[in-house]
Amino acid sequence: MIINVAVKPGSAEQEIIKTDGRNFVIRLKSRAEENKANIELVKLLAKYFNTQQKNISIKKGRKSKKKIVEIR
Q1: How many other CB atoms are there within 10 angstroms of residue 40's CB atom?
Q2: Cα of 57 vs its chain's centroid, Å
Q3: What is the CATH number of the domain that holds 52?
Q4: 67 with 58: CB under 8 angstroms?
Q5: Partner of 46 for a Cys bridge, out of 7, 12, 53, 72, CB 3.0 to 4.6 A?
Q6: Residue 64: what pLDDT?
Q7: For the chain, what is the domain count?
């Protein structure tokens, strides 16, 4: 499954908001420094979709707030 993610790093709380179909807004506590936000994103999505972290990959937008993520 492919999803579109809008990330908001540096938020007070972690939160996943499904806006529609395959679009999500995700608030992360980590800042976008040294890949920390991407690591937190993968962990959070793995928990949300009840899968292992190795089954989640960021296909596009590693350095952007808008990402395309594949969940296997």
Answers
A1: 18
A2: 9
A3: 3.30.1200.10
A4: yes
A5: 53
A6: 94
A7: 1
Tell me the residue range of the domain where 39 lies.
2-71
Q: Are 29 and 16 in contact (CB under 8 A)?
A: no
**Helical segments of the chain, H only:** 36-48
The model carries a pTM of 0.92
Burial of 27 (0-12, 13-18, 19+ CB in 10 A): middle
Query: Look-up: residue for tokens 């179909």?
Result: 21
Tokens of 7: 């990330």
As averages over each run of 10 residues, the pLDDT of the chain (72 residues) reads: 96 95 96 93 97 96 95 94
Are the C-beta atoms of residues 36 and 30 closer than 8 Å to each other?
yes
